[in-house]
Recover the amino acids of this structure.
């Protein structure tokens, strides 16, 4: 299928209707470029996916705007009048076995140790976060073995969320790559997809087109999908998730330059899953809480878990647990009953109000998704800005890569994907002008 030419010029094809692809297309179209988006799924949004379940909207992918001050996603929200709700979870309640919160003194001490370990992590490069956390805990001369284990597993939880990996595979200086904006974090009671639809207005998008091959010829680029359909383009912007590139689900002819392939192979990309569950009655350790916190950390069997209380948003006892790394991979491979069994065996130590089966549960499995093979990128061992810069080099001024994984400053975020898509569009616009 040869797409319609405008003024004898083939269109720019964007592969993927996620936030990066949509942002890129919108910017190009605003500068009078003919753009067509090819999307493998039967929907737009990529890893932003809001789903209505039992009259409630659940964001299965991205949920938060991570800081609204100066954030371009917040600008869209304000312009469109999209409803949001502030949900900051920086301040948490830490629980002892049995559900008793840490005392003020215990919490202050715990947070001071966290700060010391974070300082050590920030000063190291080229080694794993696990090595630095373990060695720093030993230098702190903490006599309480249980406290040592809590600190170690707390940082394992940090690797899981927000980095979708484990401490052993996370770069020690990961804080350098935490690309959030300042200000409140907000969520969408009616779904993040509202932002996606706003960006996608009036764009030419073809769904259910699963691109498998990109061939550069002398006069044009041929894009071939799984059904054998052929599309001709003047330029191609590839915005598929890094997991798809790692799995080599798209064949490039000629092959990608070695610098690009090296970056794809060595950048981190992990599985990150959500488990929402609703109950008839609130969890008793949360119901007893007299503070305004909505985030709770608890420990069991040397694991640290975090549970977020979404009850105010859903107007019924609703909770969210986030999993990354090996625990997320377990969820990718397990059925709902096995996942709930895993969660409940750890939660039961803290509550007497947990039912055998929740009233409602919603479980994601992004690592098993054939259009993403995971959730988002993270700074793996030996991660550098130069590694990401390799992905940002265009190929013969005809093929471009874009997405959250290509954003040096804001990787792993929706705003990172949005900004990078726009940057690539501006790069193409300058080429066309020249």
């Amino acid at each position: 299928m040869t797409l319609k030419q405008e003024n004898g010029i083939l269109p720019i094809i964007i592969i993927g209707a996620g936030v990066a692809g949509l942002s890129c297309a919108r910017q190009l179209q605003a500068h009078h470029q003919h753009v067509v988006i090819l999307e493998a799924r039967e929907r737009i949004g990529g890893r932003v996916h809001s789903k209505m379940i039992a009259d409630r909207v659940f964001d299965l992918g991205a949920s938060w705007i991570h800081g609204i001050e100066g954030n371009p996603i917040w600008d869209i929200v304000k312009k469109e009048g999209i409803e949001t709700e502030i949900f900051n979870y920086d301040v948490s309640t830490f629980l002892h076995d049995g559900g008793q919160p840490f005392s003020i003194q215990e919490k202050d001490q715990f947070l001071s140790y966290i700060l010391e370990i974070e300082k050590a992590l920030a000063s190291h490069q080229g080694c794993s976060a696990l090595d630095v956390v373990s060695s720093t805990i030993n230098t702190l001369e903490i006599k309480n073995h249980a406290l040592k284990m809590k600190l170690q597993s707390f940082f394992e939880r940090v690797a899981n969320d927000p980095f979708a990996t484990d401490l052993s595979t996370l770069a020690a200086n990961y804080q350098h790559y935490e690309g959030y904006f300042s200000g409140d974090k907000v969520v969408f009671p009616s779904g993040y997809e509202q932002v996606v639809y706003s960006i996608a207005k009036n764009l030419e998008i073809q769904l259910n087109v699963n691109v498998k091959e990109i061939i550069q010829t002398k006069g044009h680029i041929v894009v071939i999908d799984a059904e054998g359909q052929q599309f001709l383009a003047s330029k191609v912007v590839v915005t598929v998730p890094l997991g798809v590139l790692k799995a080599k689900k798209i064949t490039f002819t000629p092959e990608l330059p070695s610098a690009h392939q090296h970056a794809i192979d060595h950048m981190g990309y992990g599985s990150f899953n959500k488990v929402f569950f609703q109950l008839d009655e609130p969890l008793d350790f949360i119901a007893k809480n007299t503070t305004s916190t909505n985030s709770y950390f608890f420990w069991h069997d040397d694991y640290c878990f975090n549970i977020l209380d979404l009850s105010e948003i859903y107007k019924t006892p609703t909770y969210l647990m986030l999993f990354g790394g090996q625990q997320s991979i377990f969820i990718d491979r397990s059925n709902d009953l096995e996942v709930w069994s895993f969660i409940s065996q750890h939660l039961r130590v803290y509550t007497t109000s947990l039912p055998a089966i929740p009233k409602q549960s919603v479980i994601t499995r992004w690592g098993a998704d054939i259009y993403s093979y995971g959730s988002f990128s993270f700074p793996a061992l030996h991660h550098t800005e130069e590694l990401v810069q390799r992905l940002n080099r265009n190929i013969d001024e005809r093929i471009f890569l874009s997405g959250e994984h290509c954003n040096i400053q804001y990787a792993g975020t929706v705003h990172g994907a949005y900004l990078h898509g726009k940057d690539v569009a501006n790069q193409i616009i300058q080429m066309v002008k020249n």
Q: What stands out?
A: The longest helix spans residues 414-433.
